[in-house]
# Entry
Amino acid sequence: MSHAYLIEIEQDTVGLIIREAEGYRFYATRRSLRGLQPDLFDTATAAHRAVLHMNGPTEATCSSMVPLHHPAQAE
# Structure
């Protein structure tokens, strides 16, 4: 299990989900999603769903949650 995820919507990086001691937090790179930053989520998937919900519907929403691995984890 990863402790960090890169979030992309329509091939645009919109932020990171980072595991913290209390849960998962989303850090936005897109200004319109910064309202989620104070929120804490039980799972990375819950944070990802919140990002998609806040982003709003688009015609062909394609999103990804890419695990980021620390070099020591890759061994």
